[in-house]
């Protein structure tokens, strides 16, 4: 740390007695200066020879009788501590000027008119020269700026604050290694109090973020001005946003907690009021860069949750919701689980907030994703427009996960669940396994739903877009309406028939291609040909046996669900199933072998055998 020594005499003659400073030079004191609760018993000549203001006051208050004059300097910048140093300077005693006291000394010297008109090398010029040295280094500039808070009006008039901020902004945008600035060495400030809130984050950021910790020790007004100056100097938006989040995490303990109710950690209780924390949050949110992706979705969602807890202004919360919506595809599920902070708590999580965020996302990406539909684009354009479709698919998957989490809430109404589920278009879900899982959880948590409501709920999913695993689960799910189970079985049967047709078609084309290859003279050895033919037949037979087994299981499940003979007859006629007597079950293996050897016509299976 830089410092300057002034004066050559020892300051032992200047000592404190209770609330009184006395200069024991052997001469009686003839002037008393009162600063706050401290009185200074001094001599007129050393003071008036260095200060224009003190000279004026002494001349006005001194009488012809030579009595001691007394006056007050309660408004002097820096108070009694600073005036003590000035008094020593006037007596020519040794004083140390440091980055921690130079600002108050500079302001007090200006206040007392300690210019070159009252002695060469007076305090104004001395402190101004030292300030220039302070501004050349990062740590000293930070310390000087912190002390400006104590004498802010005077420091502003002398442009000390603006000069200090400009110096820091320039250094923050530069590489500290080029100038050998000592950074991150402020261990004495680790337990400091800033804005009245105790701090706990002590690690020093490294790399491009080396300046985060030091600037986070500033008060909010000075920090805000410094951030604006740094941004105007060309600092990367990512670094600016990172510093703002770092500052908030120091002074808002809620920013260091997970949003989910499953989080068991407890933040320290802040020492400031909720109103002060709310004001801090709203100020920082306004400073965040608007560029998409600069502030992570995780931090934006934590800011939003904190804003709800602190009852921030509607404009602040709307600002954060729009920011999250613009990059919702970058969010993760755990951060979306924002507890409901409303006065009339209906649901466990704030579903309405997520719905608004989703609406903001759709307003940005829905037009682009519709334009990027593969049905109306040429191949070259489709490649360039993949991003909207990818973002939409990611958000749909995220939404399905969120619905599965909130579906277990007994207070979540069917209308809210449905409105949230249909907020994304159907084409954004390649598979409906996620929405089926959420619907199943909702049915389990709401067993009192009527048949009509269950039917409405199940319309959210498309049975044709369920995977084999989801279809198998749905076919055995007793919570689903019978109509939905029938649809699942129908589409599964249709899928199996399509697969069988495809396999026979491929097999027939393969045989034709082998014949054509033989005619062109592409011969194989008889042993290899027989081996390949036998292997293909065995694979086909094995796959057909598996399909028959799956069809048999579907029939068995359907028989369990069907309660009357009439319902079974209707279903059999619809799907083309034939009822078999119990005695025919022993012939299933023979019929399977017969089907394997059945003839195909034009590459398609013989329908009569099915």
Question: If you had to describe this structure to a student in words, what would you say it looks like?
Answer:
The protein has helices at 44-48, 52-61, 79-90, 102-111, 123-134, 138-148, 152-157, 160-172, 176-179, 212-215, 220-232, 237-251, 274-287, 297-309, 314-326, 333-336, 351-371, 379-384, 386-406, 414-421, 433-445, 451-458, 468-475, 482-519, 526-561, 565-575, 588-596, and strands spanning 4-6, 14-17, 20-23, 31-35, 38-42, 69-72, 95-97, 193-194, 197-198, 600-601, 604-605. A hairpin with a 2-residue loop joins strand 2 and strand 3 (20-23). The radius of gyration is 41 Å and the shape is elongated. The longest helix has 38 residues, at 482-519. The strands form four sheets. It has a five-stranded mixed sheet with strand order 2-3-5-4-6, covered by helices on one side. Helix content is 55%, strand content 6%. With 610 residues, the chain is mostly helical. Among the domains are: 4-173, Potassium Channel Kv1.1, Chain A (2-Layer Sandwich); 236-257 and 272-326, no CATH class; 328-368 and 388-462. InterPro entries: BTB/POZ_dom, NPH3/RPT2-like, NPH3_dom, SKP1/BTB/POZ_sf.
- Given helix and strand content, the structural type is mainly alpha
Q: The biggest beta sheet, please? A: 5 strands, mixed
- Taken as a percent bin, the fraction of beta residues is 5-15%
Helix amount: 55-70%
Round the mean pLDDT to the nearest integer and report it.
76
Q: In CATH, what is the homologous superfamily of the domain at 4-173?
A: Potassium Channel Kv1.1, Chain A
Output the strand order for the largest sheet. 2-3-5-4-6
Got a strand count? Answer: 11
As residue ranges, the low-confidence spans are 184-203, 259-269, 371-386, 520-534, 563-610
Overall geometry comes to elongated
CATH class of the domain at 4-173, please?
Answer: Alpha Beta
| Rg computed from alpha carbons, rounded to a whole number of angstroms | 41 Å
Number of helices: 27
Give the termini separation. 93 Å
Membrane topology: Peripheral membrane protein
Family: Belongs to the NPH3 family.
GO biological process, one term: protein ubiquitination
Pathway: Protein modification; protein ubiquitination
């Amino acid at each position: 740390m830089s410092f300057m020594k002034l004066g050559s005499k020892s300051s032992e003659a200047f000592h404190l007695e209770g609330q009184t400073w006395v200069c024991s030079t052997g001469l009686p004191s003839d002037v008393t200066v009162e600063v706050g609760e401290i009185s200074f018993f001094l001599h007129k000549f050393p003071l008036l020879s260095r200060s224009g203001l003190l000279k004026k006051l002494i001349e006005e208050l001194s009488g012809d009788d030579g009595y001691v004059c007394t006056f007050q300097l309660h408004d002097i910048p820096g108070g009694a501590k600073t005036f003590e140093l000035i008094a020593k300077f006037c007596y020519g005693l040794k004083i140390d000027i440091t980055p921690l006291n130079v600002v108050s000394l500079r302001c007090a010297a200006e206040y007392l008119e300690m210019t070159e008109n009252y002695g060469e090398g007076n305090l104004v010029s001395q402190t101004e020269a030292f300030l220039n040295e302070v501004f050349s280094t990062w740590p000293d500039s930070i310390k000087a700026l912190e002390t400006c808070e104590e004498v802010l009006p005077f420091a502003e008039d002398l442009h000390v604050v603006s000069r200090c901020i400009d110096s820091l902004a320039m250094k923050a945008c530069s590489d500290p290694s080029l100038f050998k600035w000592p950074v991150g060495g402020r261990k004495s400030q680790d337990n400091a109090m800033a804005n009245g809130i105790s701090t706990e984050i002590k690690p020093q950021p490294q790399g491009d973020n080396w300046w985060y910790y030091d600037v986070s020790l500033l008060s909010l007004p000075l920090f805000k001005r410094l951030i604006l100056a740094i941004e105007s100097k060309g600092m990367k938006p990512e670094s600016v946003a990172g510093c703002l989040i770092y500052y908030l995490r120091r002074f808002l303990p809620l920013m260091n907690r997970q949003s989910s109710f499953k989080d068991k950690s407890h933040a320290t209780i802040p020492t400031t009021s909720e109103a002060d924390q709310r004001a801090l949050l709203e100020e920082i949110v306004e400073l965040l860069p608007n560029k998409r992706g600069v502030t992570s979705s995780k931090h934006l969602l934590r800011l939003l949750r904190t804003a709800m807890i602190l009852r921030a202004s509607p404009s602040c919360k709307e600002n954060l919701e729009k920011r999250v919506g613009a990059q919702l595809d970058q969010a993760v599920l755990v951060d979306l689980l924002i507890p409901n902070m409303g006065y009339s708590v209906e649901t466990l999580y704030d579903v309405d907030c997520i719905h608004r965020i989703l609406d903001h996302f759709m307003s940005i990406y829905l037009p682009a994703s519709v334009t990027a539909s593969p049905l109306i684009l040429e191949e070259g354009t489709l490649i360039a427009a993949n991003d909207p479709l990818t973002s939409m698919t990611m958000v749909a998957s995220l939404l399905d996960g969120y619905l599965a989490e909130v579906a277990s809430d007994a207070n979540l109404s069917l209308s809210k669940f449905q409105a949230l589920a249909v907020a994304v278009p159907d084409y954004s879900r390649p598979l409906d396994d996620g929405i089926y899982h959420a619907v199943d959880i909702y049915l389990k948590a709401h067993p009192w739903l009527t048949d009509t409501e269950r039917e409405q709920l199940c319309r959210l999913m498309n049975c044709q877009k369920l995977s084999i695993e989801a279809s198998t689960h749905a076919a055995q799910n007793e919570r689903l309406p019978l109509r939905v189970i029938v649809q699942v079985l129908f589409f599964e049967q249709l899928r199996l028939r399509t697969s069988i047709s495809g396999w026979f078609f491929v097999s027939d084309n393969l045989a034709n291609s082998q014949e054509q290859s033989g005619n062109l003279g592409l011969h194989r050895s008889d042993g290899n040909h027989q081996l390949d033919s036998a292997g293909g037949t065995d694979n086909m037979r094995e796959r057909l046996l598996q399909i028959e087994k799956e069809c048999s299981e579907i029939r068995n499940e359907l028989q369990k669900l069907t309660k009357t003979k009439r319902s079974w007859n209707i279903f059999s006629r619809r799907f083309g199933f034939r009822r078999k007597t119990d005695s025919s079950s022993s012939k299933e293996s023979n019929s399977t072998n017969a089907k394997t050897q059945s003839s195909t016509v034009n590459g398609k299976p013989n329908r009569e055998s099915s």
